[in-house]
From TrEMBL:
It comes from Streptomyces boncukensis. It catalyses: Random endo-hydrolysis of N-acetyl-beta-D-glucosaminide (1->4)-beta-linkages in chitin and chitodextrins. This is chitinase. The keyword Zinc-finger does not apply. Its EC number is 3.2.1.14. It is an enzyme of class 3 (hydrolase). SMART domains: Glyco_18. Residues 76-439 form the GH18 domain. Keywords: Carbohydrate metabolism, Chitin degradation, Glycosidase, Hydrolase, Polysaccharide degradation. GO terms for biological process: carbohydrate metabolic process; chitin catabolic process. Belongs to the glycosyl hydrolase 18 family. One of its GO terms (molecular function) is chitin binding.
């Protein structure tokens, strides 16, 4: 989840990498993970041994493996991030949510991002949000905008999408990697902050669009793009104020996935904050990446730990276990999926743990690329810790594929989680390969 913003990203567990969405936005500005092989391509003894070890590791870390998977209804929510800057270089619009088939799979859209400035919620990009004019060909319903209509841009297109899908909810997400610096000031007067957010989310110009607010604070009383010293109670106080103002509307938050001892999750009172939230979105991706330019190579979104993982507590299973251990029920937790991969170059070792010379080249940013690009460029033909990776020439990339996403969904159902969310819609294929694999 992860400027503005996730995901990116949210460089969640690590903190310094930034959420993908944040780093992309900061780099690109306003202008600003395959073809999956059905058999393993590596026949080497070392690769076979590694894959056998991975399979054993996944079984040993999931005691409920033999339990029957619950139906998708047990999870319920599928939430996708839509970025306002995606309408520029990425050329991804609200219409693509419909034409890809994604709208039929989504229960909620998180609109990323609004900014946090001067202790208030503010607009992130007015042009993309509500000014950009859409032609009939670009519009979700085939109707062109007119020069004098009061609302245009993404907001108007999302209202049209909601009319086509009456059960679809849209939540406005504020902050993200680049724009989290404003939360410290906001936390000094949480009631005034909540008031400003409520007024902006419910502005009459886009009445009926938003069903609530999402807070993407990276990270409360811890370091992200900058270091935050707001105190351990600030996040809970902010969430309490938002709940008090938003009442029965949705109040949610994207949170750290760092389950290490003394890590980000230990720096703030997530349990108390959860009492005021409808749910938390744990950013279970970006655990590892090419911000560590020389490696070791490691999958950025492992479901479980594995022998040789660079840091303990940096995997989805550990994240969810720690949050539950704090007393937060699974019914308030969603796990995160990255619709992108992270990669290194100068890598000679196929298995994880190899050295590198730097980040692999990505379409928009070094070290990261969309699933729709990587599935053909570097097919992920190997498995480790419940996710996938590929070694292509000198490049090493990790990302989820439909099969690993489906397996993660089975795991989440056994864990009684509220559902899944992903960063972000434009990383999927034009026909929605990844979102259709979510259970």
């Amino acid at each position: 989840m992860l400027g503005t913003g996730k995901r990116r990203s949210h460089g969640d567990a690590r903190g310094g990498a930034g959420r993908r969405h944040g780093r992309l936005f900061a780099v690109l500005g306003a202008a600003c993970a395959a073809v999956l092989a059905t058999t393993l391509l590596s026949a080497s003894a070392s690769a076979d041994a590694q894959e056998e070890q991975d399979a054993k590791g996944a079984q040993s870390t999931q005691s409920a493996q033999s339990a029957p998977a619950k139906s998708r209804a047990a999870a319920g929510k599928t939430i996708g991030y839509f970025t306002n800057w995606g309408v520029y270089q990425r050329n991804y619009h609200v219409k693509n949510i419909e034409t890809s088939g994604s709208a039929d799979k989504l229960t909620h859209i998180n609109y990323a991002f609004g900014n946090v400035q001067g202790g208030k919620c503010t607009i992130g990009d007015s042009y993309a949000d509500y000014e950009k004019a859409y032609s009939a060909a670009q519009s979700v319903d085939g109707q062109a905008d007119t020069w004098d209509q009061p609302l245009r841009g993404n907001f108007n297109q999302l209202l049209k999408l909601k009319k086509m899908h009456p059960d679809l909810k849209v939540i406005w997400s504020f902050g993200g990697w680049t724009w989290s610096g404003g939360f410290g000031q906001a936390a000094q007067n949480p009631e005034a902050f909540a008031e400003s957010c409520y007024n902006l989310v419910n502005d009459p110009r886009w009445e009926g669009l938003f069903d609530g607010i999402d807070i993407d604070w990276e990270y409360p009383n811890a370091c992200g793009l900058t270091c935050d010293t707001s105190g351990p109670d600030a996040f809970a106080n902010l969430m309490k104020a938002l709940r008090g103002k938003f009442g029965n509307d949705l109040v949610t938050a994207a949170i750290t996935a760092d389950a290490s001892d003394g890590g980000k999750m230990d720096q703030a009172d997530y349990k108390s904050a959860s009492e005021h939230a409808d749910w938390f979105l744990a950013m279970t991706y970006d655990y590892f990446g090419a911000w560590d330019a020389q490696g070791p190579t490691a999958p950025h979104s492992p479901l479980t730990s594995y022998e040789g993982i660079p840091r303990e507590g940096f995997n989805t299973e550990a994240t969810i276990a720690k949050l539950k251990g704090l007393g937060i029920p699974g019914s308030k937790l969603l796990y995160g999926l990255g619709f992108y991969g992270r990669g290194w170059t100068g890598v000679t070792q196929t298995e994880p743990g190899g050295s590198a010379t730097g980040p692999a080249q990505g379409k928009y940013e070094a070290g990261i690329d969309d699933y729709k690009e990587l599935k053909n460029r570097c097919p992920a033909t190997h498995r480790v810790a419940g996710t996938a990776y590929g070694h292509c020439g000198q490049e090493w990339w990790s990302y989820d594929v439909p099969e690993t996403i489906a397996a993660k969904g089975d795991w989440a159902a056994r864990e009684g989680l509220a559902g899944a969310f992903f960063w972000e819609l434009s990383g999927d294929t034009a026909n929605g390969e990844l979102i259709k694999a979510i259970k």
